[in-house]
């Protein structure tokens, strides 16, 4: 116990909670596992790489599990803040910045300098950290590991181990437990194991994460990917059709019924890591009005960029001669512009009043996309688009969206910007699902303002930067494009004010309504809700 003199006048103890001896042992076990990975990074020659890899991953997972059990099973059920704003690592302190720098550095090396991790060139043997993962990769798919296999393995271990921690922390809430198990299942099965098994069955098929769709899966429509699928007969064609159907049919239907939470909080690997490994940093998301304005502009700019870049990417490998294939560049641009115009006209006709000022920003985005597509079509040549080589344009999309934003910034900045900075400011998939959720989803979070005590737990725990308390105090339904439906605000509410619902569209959005006791229509209004 600390003996330092505390001059604070706070009723709450303004110090981080001390960890127990058992937790210190758990931390030591986890550090041993990380130390083995560090030794491998410096090219240590282990006598049995399979054994040391197993020991490393087991020690890391065991350390997290033991620490979590000691942290939560020794206390009563229910979420407690546990001094999160007083811990250096979770309050942008020195340890928070150190972890952020380490994570960011790892992502930079992973994406841009994999040779420093030991990735072999020209078919030679791997060295360093990547070679440590060769036995596991050989076991699953019969090939040596790549930097992406190393990343996928560590990513999966993190979601599984921290997912267990998350389940213990929110063990009083069945929704959180089921949702976390779902994320763990999709990451382990669909994102990690199934792609490896698909390679064993047909090693000519391009890598395909079945749960990832465009625009998050930005490479599915790249030329090498499309050619790889089409050259593998019916199974390759089926995978392309599945990707297209997922975008235009499955996703809108599920979003209509359940909101964007069906993907962002139940399936997505980015969201899964944010919810599990990033749970300790969820409160760091800014609730400022300025952050919300930046979010609205930035995420939709990324969406515009994704639409234009994907169209340009496909455009670069299409031809001009309709005798070669019916889908020429002219036909393709016409189809894209026609589809976007149909969506824009439908939204303006049916939802113009509901959107209010947002309709103006939507119009700006629509006409910007159309203008860019027309400029691309009328200035493009056989090799160049926007006066840029087609290959350079395709690689730029992957670097700026798939690498820098989602990886380096999105995950590396967990201890600085909060756990869902990528989902909030940069994910084009979140922008599309948020657009659908705002317009036609049955999902909303209902509030009972009469029971709200303004404790602020809900706003503090919202990783998307929504000031939930503002809605709860007014008893107003929460229908926000950015809300991922994680339900943590409801889980941490001590009064049961918040409830996640999938109801009818009627009465979904209810601006502030003052109910007077002498209003003759009071009961009728209440019954309508």
What would a concise description of this structure say?
The protein is mainly α and 529 residues long. It has helices spanning 21-41, 49-72, 94-112, 128-132, 134-141, 147-169, 174-201, 223-230, 233-258, 261-264, 269-276, 289-316, 329-355, 358-379, 390-409, 414-417, 421-425, 428-440, 457-461, 468-474, 488-491, 522-528; strands at 384-385, 388-389, 443-447, 498-502.
Describe it.
This protein has 529 residues and is mainly alpha-helical. Helices cover 60% and strands 3% of the residues. It is built from 22 helices and four strands. The protein has helices spanning 21-41, 49-72, 94-112, 128-132, 134-141, 147-169, 174-201, 223-230, 233-258, 261-264, 269-276, 289-316, 329-355, 358-379, 390-409, 414-417, 421-425, 428-440, 457-461, 468-474, 488-491, 522-528, and strands at residues 384-385, 388-389, 443-447, 498-502. Strands 1-2 form a two-stranded antiparallel ribbon. Strands 3-4 form a two-stranded antiparallel ribbon. A hairpin with a 2-residue loop joins strand 1 (384-385) and strand 2 (388-389). The chain is globular. The chain starts with 20 loop residues before the first helix and ends with a helix. Mean pLDDT is 85; it is low at 514-520.
């Amino acid at each position: 116990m600390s003996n330092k003199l505390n001059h604070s006048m706070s009723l709450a103890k303004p110090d981080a909670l001390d960890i127990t001896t058992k937790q210190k042992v758990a931390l030591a076990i986890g550090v041993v596992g990380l130390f083995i990975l560090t030794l491998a990074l410096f090219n240590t020659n282990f006598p049995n790489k399979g054994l040391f890899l197993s020991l490393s991953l087991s020690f890391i997972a065991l350390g997290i599990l033991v620490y979590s059990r000691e942290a939560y099973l020794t206390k009563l059920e229910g979420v407690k803040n546990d001094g999160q704003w007083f811990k250096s690592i979770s309050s942008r302190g020195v340890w928070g910045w150190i972890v952020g720098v380490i994570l960011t550095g790892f992502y930079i090396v992973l994406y841009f300098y994999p040779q420093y991790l030991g990735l072999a060139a020209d078919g030679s043997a791997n060295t360093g950290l990547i070679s440590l993962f060769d036995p596991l990769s050989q076991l699953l798919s019969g090939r040596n590991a790549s930097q992406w296999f190393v990343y996928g393995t560590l990513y999966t271990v993190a979601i599984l181990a921290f997912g267990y921690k998350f389940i213990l922390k929110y063990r009083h809430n069945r929704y959180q437990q089921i949702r976390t198990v779902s994320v763990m299942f999709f990451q382990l099965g669909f994102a990690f194991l199934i792609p490896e098994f698909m390679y064993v069955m047909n090693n000519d098929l391009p890598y395909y994460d079945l749960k990832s769709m465009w625009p998050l899966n930005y490479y599915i429509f790249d030329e090498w990917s499309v050619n790889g699928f089409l050259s593998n007969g019916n199974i390759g064609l089926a995978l392309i059709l599945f990707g297209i159907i997922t975008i235009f049919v499955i996703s809108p239907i599920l979003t209509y019924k359940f909101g964007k939470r069906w993907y962002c909080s139940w399936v997505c690997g980015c969201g899964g890591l944010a919810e599990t490994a990033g749970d300790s940093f969820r409160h760091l998301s800014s609730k400022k009005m300025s952050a919300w304005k930046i979010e609205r502009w930035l995420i939709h700019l990324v969406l515009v960029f994704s639409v234009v870049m994907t169209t340009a990417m496909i455009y670069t490998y299409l031809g001009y001669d309709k005798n070669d294939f019916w889908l020429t560049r002219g036909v393709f641009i016409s189809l894209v512009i026609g589809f976007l115009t149909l969506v824009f006209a439908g939204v303006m006709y049916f939802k113009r009043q509901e959107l209010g000022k947002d309709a103006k920003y939507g119009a700006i985005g629509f006409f910007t996309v159309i203008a860019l597509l027309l400029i691309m079509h009328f200035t493009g040549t056989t090799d160049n688009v926007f006066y840029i080589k087609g290959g350079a344009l395709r690689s730029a999309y992957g670097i700026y969206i798939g690498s820098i934003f989602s990886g380096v910034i999105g995950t590396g900045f967990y201890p600085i910007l909060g756990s869902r900075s990528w989902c909030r400011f940069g994910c084009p998939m979140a922008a599309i699902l948020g657009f659908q959720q705002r317009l036609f989803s049955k999902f909303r979070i209902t509030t009972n303002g009469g029971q709200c005590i303004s404790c602020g737990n809900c706003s503090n725990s919202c990783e998307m930067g929504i000031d939930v308390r503002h809605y709860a105090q007014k008893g107003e339904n929460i229908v926000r494009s950015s809300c991922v439906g994680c339900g943590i605000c409801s889980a941490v509410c001590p009064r049961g004010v918040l409830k996640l619902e999938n109801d009818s569209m009627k009465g979904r959005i209810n601006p502030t309504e003052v109910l007077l006791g002498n209003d003759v229509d009071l009961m009728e209004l209440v019954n309508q809700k």
